[in-house]
């Protein structure tokens, strides 16, 4: 947790402070003796976000031809869970440090900043269709960035990044059994609405492109599309950091 707080507060605020100090020193031609800064501890209000909900993953163009005389042009649809565990610095907290931002960059602190808990997957595949199909696996975000627009009661969000997916898929009807371990890139569009102060609802869709893997009759599979809905609960907490 301490590393996440440093990522949100220390990295952002300290960076702004460094920029401000560099701008001030460049305007002065005289050498001013360095004074030891007396850092003080300051209480920071943050939110721990827990988001979870159902997800539907479509293996795009996995089947487009006939197999053993049986025509199957329907994409396999798998069920799973969408997750979001993160630490957020709300707008009210960031506004306290707006005076530390260099001139012209104050707008960077007008919104919210969120950092995901590392090593937790964002999508989990859990599908067992009574002996017809089964799939187990997960997708992790390696590096991503997002931005949101609009008021809190209806916010539109865009996110993109580099991902990695580990998936075992078995189709008993067509005797397909693949192990899918691939890096890729994805893009997400979502709508979120703040129901109450610490509760939020989100729906979204995302598409992922991977390095191709060969499946039945020597075809290449490389696309997964996901639709999801999530309910978020935000737990407020405070901590002290030196700034």
Overall form: elongated
Structural class: mainly beta
The number of strands is: 11
Q: How much beta, percentage-wise?
A: over 45%
* Total helical elements: 2
Share of helix, binned: 10-25%
Mean pLDDT over the residues? 79
Question: What's the Cα radius of gyration?
Answer: 23 Å
Secondary-structure element order, N to C: HEEEEHEEEEEEE
> If strands are numbered along the chain, what order do they take across the biggest sheet?
1-4-6-7-8-9-10-11
As residue ranges, the low-confidence spans are: 1-36
Please report the distance between the alpha carbons of the first and last residues. 18 Å
Described by strand count, sense and barrel closure, the largest sheet is: 8 strands, antiparallel, barrel
